[in-house]
Every structure is written in C-alpha cells, then in structure tokens.
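Hi everyone, sorry if this is the wrong subforum. Our group has a chain we'd like a structural model of before ordering constructs, and none of us has done structure prediction before. Sequence below.
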Amino acid sequence: MAEQIVIPTVTGRRGRYAALYPQVAALLASEEDAIAAMANLCAAIHQVFGWHWVGFYRVVGDQLVLGPFQGPVACTPIAYGKGVCGTAWQEDRTINVPDVDAFPGHIACSNLSRSEIVVPLHGHGGRVAAVLDVDSASLDDFGPEDEQELARLCRLIEPLLP
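Answer:
Right subforum, don't worry. Here is the predicted structure as tokens:
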C-alpha cells in the first residue's frame, strides 16, 4: 500500500494523471471498503490537482447522500435528476459543465465553484451507485482528458459498490 501520493514535477494534466493512476491503483488494490476507497481517492485527486471540491455522493434510496470529500462543506441530500449530480445519475453519463451559472437547476453549494464535472459509478447490478463530483474555481477547467481519466480512476472503486 502506498503511504503517500508522490507526483514528480510534470507539466500538464496528462503527466499528473499518468503518475497518479498507478499509485491510486496500488493504494486501493487491497481495499475492501467502498467508503475508505472513496475517501482515499478524493484525497489523492484533491492533493494532485488542487480543485476546489472533490467528493462522492452515494445513491441511498431515491436521493444522493454525501460521501467522502475534500473541500468546504457540501449540499446534501440531492434528489434524482436535480443539479449536475442528480442529472448525471438520472442520465447515467458524465456531465462536464464549463460554467455552472449556465446549467439549469445548478445547486450552488459554494459561490467559488465555477465549473464542474460529475462521473457516475456503477455497482454490481450495473446501476449508478454513486457519483464523483469535482468543482473548480476556474471557468471551463475540465476537458475530455479529465472525463476519461476521472472515469478510469472511478472504475477502481466500482467493484466495491453494491
């Protein structure tokens, strides 16, 4: 198990993701608890990229309930189809929002959040069991590379989800 995440001085997100993925994979390889895995993944992503907020919402009944996160306090619960997180759950797809003020029904937990990306995670039955929510204080901060790499990191946790 890795005791810390070490990212060499690299330029660009591609290099940071390339350095982060094998370390997170090693960190989570023997983890059997989904909440613990979510907590460590949030901490690693937050440490490496320094985004405003990184966290998980878990599907509990008919709502999303706050899970492990890094950043300021968060909104909870979130209804199915509401805000970016609820919409990603409902549509079962990654949603990348360049400007949260332009997203109809955006739930503003922090006025510092300017852009957001939400990645659904699937449990054993193939249904969405959680979402990874990442907020940035910069407009248009996420691109296709973030969509792909965050989903790849989330797949490390999916086997632990109900």
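For your construct planning: Strands lie at 53-60, 63-70, 78-79, 95-97, 115-122, 128-136. The chain has a mean pLDDT of 94.
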